[in-house]
Known about the structure:
The complex is a heterodimer. Chain A has 18 helices and ten strands. Chain A is α+β, with helices and mostly antiparallel strands.
Amino acid sequence: MKKSFRQSMAWLHTWAGLLLGWLLVAIFITGTSAYFREEITLWMQPELHDSTLQPDTVDKALAALNAKAPDARSWDISLPGPRHTAAELRWQPAKQPENEGRRRGEQMLMDADSGEIVSPRATRGGNFLYRFHFELYGIDRLWARLLVCLATLFMLIAIISGVITHKKIFKDFFTFRPGKGQRSWLDAHNATAVLALPYHFMITYSGLLLFMTLIMPWGIDAAYQGDRRAFFSEVFSRGEDAARPGAPEAMVAIGPLIEQTETRFGKPVTRIQISNPNRDNAQITLRVNRDPAVTDRQRGGDPTQVFLGNTGELIDTHIPANDPVSPGWRIYNFFTSVHMARFADPLTRWLFFLFGVAGCAMTITGMLLWVSKRTQQLRRDQQPDRALKMVNGLNMASITGLMLAIAAYFLANRLLPVTLEARESREIQVFFLAWLVSLVHGLLRPHRQGWVEQVGAATVLWFAVPIINMLTTESHLFSALAWQHPAIASFDLVCLILAGLGGYTLWRLQRKPVPAKPRRARPPRAANTSTTGQTPAGETQ
Amino acid sequence: MTMALSLFLALALAYAGLTSLSLAMKRHHDQVMGRKLQPERVRYYRWPGWLLLGGSLLVTLTVWPLGLALFMAVGLVAVAGLPLVFLLPYRARLAGQLAVALPVLAVLCWSTVPLAVGGW
Lengths: 541, 120
């Protein structure tokens, strides 16, 4: 028999959503955390917390490099910014190992206050979660990306088919009817989906655009044509300098040069590069951060001034030019830079985080709705079959399981010994172990009580993160140190908020042991098997 | 600081606009106002609703470049709309009161800024 278009779309939405839904939940949750991946990394390296940019940080950094590598071919100092507290010092050693084709610089981190070299605990930090959201972990990178790409494609299909399926999209725009089981999940799914629809579409579509270049190398070639040229010229000139090491000569004081550049661009200098330091052909390059460009592609990187090292004479001022870009590239640039929130200041970043949370809520409510609907269709004496139980268990693992695994990852960061061998892998092992435990638990106890246990565990773990942090570090919520860098305090606060949400969910789960069981007779059962389109209006599942 | 205030204003306007639009609908008008919506009064809620949303967009345009501003404006609608959706069944009156209080508060905050910062 022929089904209506809307019904086919509902079928597509239901099954496309279910098949890759678990993966999508994980992608959304880890992807949302990725907006703050540098902040997460910062939190996970408490050794760097007691470090703030000081007027003499640059001098101390130069002193440190002078002590460590006075005859290096180049120095490179990245000063602390709002997202990282330590100064990063890199240098190209004078003598390179001959056999290695690729020249690798050396690197160390310096406390910006004391000028001491610090070595933080080994951790993958927020980058682990960030990487997980587009290439998972432990599988071949290309296959993982293809899988995530497939999930993204399904997501796009689910968005489009969902809109078509949703009959009363405008009439139900603000509708949420609590305490009605399936109906409530449907309303919640609709609200989070429809209200944030432009965001969902943007993040999905731009995700696909990003994959376009990640998977197909010719895409990269086209996108980075300008940058690649810049890259080559930089490499080339570095080689030229190396061939001509100048005679030893002292460099001028850097303070006035920095002042000059900051006056010129009206922004603080964030990066200092010195080629042939302590030689008569030394060149000092001072950079400030570029302006955010959402649609244009800027050529040549950051606004820069170049000085001669021995005299302090200004020899070049470089202002990046906005390349005129075609509408196609403009759209591509817009989508990709919005996806990664490349330009964002803290406030905008928080907004993106909130949008991401709405995305998580949308995928999560969709998964719960799937189970809720089928549970409600059971007759009173009927037990859920094995498939339904399995879906329920997998839902648990993908939602509460992932949440508690992330909390466990953060706890492991604080509790594992700092000197442990292969420490960063151990943290990740804890993450997957916690996730695996929740999966097994979910499959063994795929019912309400199972949910209560998992939500409870997640709540305890998230609450434990700031507590353990307080016991193991100096930068906790009750310290001035954490508030010096708002990112650190915010991390603990977000943990508490998540624990609070978990506690609230737990309370709701306890309060109403059996929701929506006392309902009227079930007309949907008949509608489900017939093809007359009698399903309750507005159903998206 | 001015950016935070602009964002607050944009959010408040978006929230008020959405609430106004919801008041143009029977079900939510009942919830919030506790009385039936007269069909001829629909436009008293619908037009101001769109105008307020337009105002929210205007504010985002002062903060971000065009493309991003458009995107952020629809994002703010989502961020403002979700609390509204979940307030309506539980605290409908509060949802209505917030729609008045938030924009007033935002404008009041703005009015203190010229003294502190010296204008936009």
